[in-house]
Fold these 2 entries.
Entry 1:
Amino acid sequence: MTKIEELDIIQGGLKICLNGTYGKLSSMYSKLYTPETLLAVTLTGQLTMLMAIEALELGGISVLSSNTDSLVFKCKKSELKKAEDIIGGVELVSGLNFEFDFLKAQYYRDVNSYVYITENGKMGAKGVYAPPTLSKNNEYPIVFDAIKAHLKDGTPMEDVIKSCTDVTKFVSGRAVAKGGHWKGKYLGKMVRFYYSTEGEPIYYTNVHGNDAKVATTDGAKPMMDLVDEIPADLDYDKYIELAHKHLENLGC
């Protein structure tokens, strides 16, 4: 494991701690219960972002999109200094610092799920396209690897998927509160599976006592214990189909 990978894991763990602390601010059963602090955290960020958007638009800089912690604007190179000065003014008023990055391309499914390429060739993603983390369910990472390789270098997605030898890239995880079962075998409250040519849906028992299908498990086969090699029954066509579907959602 590289130092960067190690720091990413530490960062992920600390993020969960911070998010958990933030959530407890609104829980009357927690010693951290402080509604006014919750509002201060949320509103400060939102109002600062709105202030930045308004200032840029009033300055003739077009804002393309925004979410809770970032915004994307478009301007000519000759207007970049003006945009930086506008954001600098917002920083002075709010006491918060903004970071800049220059994008070559950005592909949106929505404001919280997108893929971007910076001018220096760095690839990044948010939301469903981002790599799994401690706070994000694993969902067939190979599909999103294939999409990013295609957008960045034009690599055929089929080649990326079929050449992958890391079985974890094909695995998805789902939390099932009532516990999942497959072909009569109980799997537990966290099910892990891959798409198989011999697969069948995973089910759980709903509040009415009936079997209900766990989302996105058509053609699934459980893999509760990871194996070292790619299963012989892996359904490559399913992953390729998913890659094309997600690429279409990005408008490509």
Entry 2:
Amino acid sequence: METLDDLTPELLRKLYLDDFLTEQQIADQYSTTQVSIGRRRRKWGIKKVGKTGRITASLEPLTELQGALVYGSLLGDGGLRVTGEDAARFSEGHSEKQVPYLQWKAKILGPYVRKIVDHEKRKDGEVYKGKSLYTFATTHLRPFYEKFYPGPERKRVFPADLPHRMTPFILAVWYMDDGSILNKFHPRISFGLDDVSLERALAALRVLGFEPTVHPGTRDRTITFPDQDRKFFDLIKEHVPPCMAYKIPKFSMRRVKDVNARKLTVEVAQKLVAEGKSAAEIARMCGVGASTVKRRIAGQERKKMGRPKKR
């Protein structure tokens, strides 16, 4: 049986820092007391590891996918709370309908997930049930807190590096959290933060090739994507799990041609003709019907639909 005389500084460092054993577990192994192990740890200059440090030591750093999920979730419904001087805990709640979506996130976060618990919200006399996800408190998540809740105010913002960090996956998570479909086809994302955050969000969306617009609202503003709905959904759809497929509209061929027809202006059509393209070639290139091409070449723009104005 091993005794305290067999315990060297190198062995204690390995057991305590590398194998994540507590002082009490090491004491049991060497038939001594926790006080004796603690005394030797301090004598040999081995830094004390608290509960948070021990949890962090047991977790691998966030993968690229896990980091992107946290980032996209913090643009949406997720939040961070500090625990101690250098650690943070991520949490997010959803309704019963979206529990599979929460479980999808939990699967990606893997060992970082501490628990998923039931919750209730009361609004206007109604009770809404759902579940909330909580991760362990760890220093691996603290950098995200510093980005999204910078000092000294610690008020939530979109981070300054958002335009450089935005990816289709991050956009997909943000949309699934805060987005919806307007009139069956048009994506929109609710936005409730300050003007600086809004400018960063718009800059990030332009990096992905969009030309977003902002509409005021009674509570939150809304970001929309005029004439870019198909492009938006084509970009994010491979990152949307089956449980959230209802947020991706189905485009009929007629709908696709209608969208393409709006993009084919008289100027574009006549320029292509000047370059030697035939009407049939233009129709294939632009995804529209031959009659649409003929009208554009003849100088007829697409008629705007709507009710006639009352006189």
